[in-house]
């Protein structure tokens, strides 16, 4: 019996600005208006675009099918009063708003960890030849230059043809330019 293991964990790009550290107990305020798309730093040092909304579950993508190519900015509000609000914008108009709470009993919740405001979600996927469970951890930090730094860590565990187990983990970094409040 064979198995497959893959790990592509990109380190934080040394040429990027440091992240603001709020201390151990407070959340960093990541409020601001940011340009879409962001720039990605890949393990092999190539750069590519990444859209912020692609970090949400597929049901959000379905709702945005008609406007996702037009999204040119997003706004973050908070975390404040136990909520983190994420607004996706087209030409300054909000086309979709997501609210994450600090309540871990909800489907989408955030938590604070030093430099990062983070959230995690889990989903399962069954395809023609495989079954998998995936966990995605998203971390947001404010750069000392005002930019938004995003960490995207994805872990998958599953089986192909029900016989061949596999494990995969990836970590990528993205940076979004701040363009307003």
Task: Explain how this protein is built.
- The longest helix is centred in the middle third of the chain and has 6 residues, at 58-63.
- A hairpin with a 2-residue loop joins strand 5 (73-80) and strand 6 (83-90).
- The chain contains 1 helix and 13 strands.
- With 181 residues, it is mainly beta.
- Strands 1, 3, 4, 8, 9, 10, 11 and 12 form an 8-stranded mixed sheet that branches. It has a 5-stranded antiparallel sheet with strand order 7-6-5-2-13, with no helix packed on it.
Name the assembly state. Answer: single chain
The general outline is globular
SSE series: EEEEHEEEEEEEEE
Structural class: mainly beta
Q: Count the E strands.
A: 13
Largest sheet: 8 strands, mixed
User: What is the straight-line distance between the termini?
Assistant: 55 Å
Radius of gyration: 17 Å
Task: Give the DSSP E fraction (strand runs of 2 or more residues).
Answer: over 45%
Low-confidence stretches: 43-48
Q: What percent of the residues sit in helical stretches (DSSP H or I)?
A: under 10%
Number of helices: 1
Which whole number gives the mean pLDDT? 78
């Amino acid at each position: 019996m064979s198995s497959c293991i893959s790990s592509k964990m990109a380190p934080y790009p040394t040429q990027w600005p440091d992240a603001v550290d709020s201390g151990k107990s407070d959340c960093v305020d990541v409020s601001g208006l940011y340009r879409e798309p962001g720039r990605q730093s890949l393990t092999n040092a190539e750069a590519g675009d990444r859209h912020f909304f692609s970090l949400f579950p597929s049901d959000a993508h379905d709702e945005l099918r008609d406007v996702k190519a037009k999204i040119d900015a997003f706004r973050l509000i908070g975390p404040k009063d136990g909520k983190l609000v994420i607004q996706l914008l087209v030409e300054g108009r909000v086309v979709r708003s997501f609210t994450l709470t600090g309540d871990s009993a909800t489907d989408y919740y955030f938590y604070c960890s030093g430099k990062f405001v983070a959230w995690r979600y889990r989903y399962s996927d069954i395809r023609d030849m495989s079954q998998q469970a995936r966990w995605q951890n998203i971390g947001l930090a404010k750069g000392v230059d005002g930019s938004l730094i995003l960490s995207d860590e994805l872990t998958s565990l599953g089986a192909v043809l029900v016989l061949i187990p596999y494990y995969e983990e990836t970590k990528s970094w993205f940076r979004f330019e701040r363009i307003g409040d």
